[in-house]
Amino acid sequence: MDSGNLPKYKIIEDDLLNKIKAGFYKPDTLIPKEIELMEIYHVSRPTVRQAIQTLVNKGLLEKRKRRGTIVKQNKISQEFTHTIKSFNNEVKSKGFTPQTRVLFFQKELPTPEVSAALNINSSDSVYKLVRLRYADTQPVVLVTSYIPYNIFPSLNKYDFNKVSLYDTLDSHDCRIVHVKRKLEVLKADETTADLLNVDINDPLFYFHTVGTTENDIKAEYSIAKYRGDNNSFEIYIDR
Fold first, then answer.
1. Is the CATH number of domain 8-71 1.10.443.10?
2. Where does the HTH gntR-type domain lie (predicted)?
């Protein structure tokens, strides 16, 4: 192991951290015992303990009596309850790498729920965009967005695996300046559980969002299902 100018414990800390981020050591599983790590890294027990304790102090590992050291489920603090920010920017600001996988994207007629939320007629088409969003390699949220066709007919020309929906709206005079959000807590069904890598009936944060432009046009209605185990939400309230 090439330590360069770094202390040995720091080399071990960084390697363990990279393996946690890559999913090699998964949340709620044990990392190797101290004696095993001593053999892997060819170091003394105090060096291994220092590396582990540093990650414990950062909230990434937790020591359990009679079990060992487990990887903690790292919650991502979401601030969108009090500010309008794209998922990509939100995740980047927390030190994670955002990724997106588009599951469905096409033009269709709205359901009664969608037409009511967007204040459009049942005969007015919308784009339906379903995306699975990741922080590093962990799925975080399944979001379904509806955009009225008449305000952005060329929306289907964009690859939302690569570009941000909010950034795209901003660049075409459809900037969202006000949102109304409703929060529920629901249980994961079979399909959602499979996509978000949680168990069936696990709790999900369920957000309904209506986004309005500065011209008071409802330009977006979205339904977002956030994992309950790796998300937390910051809410600021002023008197």
1. no
2. 6-74
